[in-house]
Amino acid sequence: MIKVRAFDHIVLKCADIERTLSWYVDVLGLGPERVEEWRRGEAPFPSIRVDGNTIIDLIEGDPAVGRLDHLCLVIDEIDLDELAASGAFEVVDGPGPRFGARGIGESLYVLDPDGGAVELRHYGGHQ
Length: 127
Known about the structure:
The chain is an alpha+beta fold and 127 residues long. It has a single domain, classed as 2,3-Dihydroxybiphenyl 1,2-Dioxygenase, domain 1. Helix content is 17%, strand content 47%. The chain has helices at 17-27, 35-39, 80-85; strands at residues 4-14, 31-33, 47-51, 54-60, 68-75, 90-100, 103-111, 117-122. The longest helix is centred in the first third of the chain and has 11 residues, at 17-27.
């Protein structure tokens, strides 16, 4: 049984990442995360810090097609290979290490009943 602990992040598709980043940082006053690394090509996308445990990731894409790429939920530490093989979920990616609101964690992407992508992530003993 999976135990959801917290909301980790959402990923928004943006027609212009710099414009969207500026709006969230300059207008809403949220904190930029990994922006310079992204601009140097060292990170695949920039993030915006909502609070100590939650971020918004910005990726390039057509927001008219659907703005939300996926949502991520923090779960208790569990063997994600075993979970993926259980047949309980339609797995679309993973498991594997990925960056999230609390740093690098292990995650698995699954689909909800309507085809929405949900990332199930744990941070080992650092929940």
